[in-house]
């Protein structure tokens, strides 16, 4: 479908803080969660609503709006995706969680899958895939492949930072998805790291340097 770069001042300010050398694990993790929440607000903006009748505080019948039909499953890509989970689930507390584990081989840059636990009836849900980094796109494409194979028909992606190469590859493989990001950065370096990027997001979130 498309990529949407969300230029909200709060998002850009927080992302700018995340780019600083020597940022603490505590600050990086908190900011990843906060930017994740703000991007979730944008990514859920067009969810359809339906009217439902409830009994209100004074006993009267009242028409209120609820999110219609399909409900969301959040899909964090291990490990780094877990760093956005708190913020995302603060906004969607009832969301079911489907976990996917992928480790990028640092030499070939190919994603190596090692875990998959998806919720039931995923064909009836919208998947909201979360990962701080979309670099070559390999991990994201493999995750979307898994979700589609399990029957999921509607997929949105939230990443903190994306590289043009990875976005192009992901949208070419899966033109029906939507990507929400805080930044579309310049390029990948020779090791597949996003420039300017954030460095190794997983290591920063988990403190594994
Ligand atoms: O677009 P790609 O080229 O596939 O790279 C992006 C992936 O790399 C990072 O994870 P990593 O493999 O380092 O695992 P980790 O989260 O366990 O650190 C990142 O969190 C993405 O999942
Ligand atoms: O820039 C990058 C690329 C892949 N994974 C990261 O954590 N950072
Ligand atoms: Mg990593």
UniProtKB/TrEMBL annotation:
It catalyses: UMP + diphosphate = 5-phospho-alpha-D-ribose 1-diphosphate + uracil. Its cofactor is Mg(2+). Its EC number is 2.4.2.9. Uracil binds at residues 194, 199-201. Allosterically activated by GTP. Pathway: Pyrimidine metabolism; UMP biosynthesis via salvage pathway; UMP from uracil: step 1/1. It comes from the Bacteria. One of its GO terms (molecular function) is uracil phosphoribosyltransferase activity. Keywords: Allosteric enzyme, Glycosyltransferase, GTP-binding, Magnesium, Nucleotide-binding, Plasmid, Transferase. InterPro entries: PRTase-like, PRTase_dom, Upp_B, UPRT, UPRTase/APRTase. Binds 1 Mg(2+) ion per subunit. The magnesium is bound as Mg-PRPP. Residues 5-208 form the Phosphoribosyltransferase domain. 5-phospho-alpha-D-ribose 1-diphosphate binds at residues 79, 104, 131-139, 200. Belongs to the UPRTase family. HAMAP family: Upp_B (MF_01218_B). NCBIfam families: PRK00129.1, upp. Catalyzes the conversion of uracil and 5-phospho-alpha-D-ribose 1-diphosphate (PRPP) to UMP and diphosphate. This is Uracil phosphoribosyltransferase. It comes from Catenovulum adriaticum. The lineage of its organism: Bacteria, Pseudomonadati, Pseudomonadota, Gammaproteobacteria, Alteromonadales.
């Amino acid at each position: 479908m498309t990529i949407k770069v969300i230029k909200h001042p709060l998002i850009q300010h927080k992302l700018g803080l995340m780019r600083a050398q020597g940022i603490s694990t505590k600050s990086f993790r908190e900011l990843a969660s906060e930017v994740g929440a703000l991007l979730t607000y944008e990514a859920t903006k067009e969810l359809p609503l339906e009217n439902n009748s409830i009994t209100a505080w004074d006993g009267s019948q009242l028409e209120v709006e609820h999110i219609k039909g399909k409900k969301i499953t959040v899909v964090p890509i291990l490990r780094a995706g877990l760093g956005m989970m708190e913020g995302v689930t603060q906004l969607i507390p009832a969301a079911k969680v489907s976990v996917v584990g992928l480790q990028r081989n640092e030499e070939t840059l190919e994603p190596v899958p090692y875990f998959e636990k998806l919720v039931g009836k995923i064909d009836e849900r919208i998947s909201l895939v979360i990962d701080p980094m979309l670099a070559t796109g390999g991990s994201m494409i493999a995750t979307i492949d898994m979700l589609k194979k399990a029957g999921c028909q509607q997929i949105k992606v939230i990443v903190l930072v994306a590289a043009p190469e990875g976005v192009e590859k992901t949208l070419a493989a899966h033109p029906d998805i939507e990507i929400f990001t805080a930044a579309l950065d310049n390029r990948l370096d020779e090791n597949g790291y996003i420039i300017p990027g954030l460095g190794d997001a997983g290591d920063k979130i988990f403190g594994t340097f």
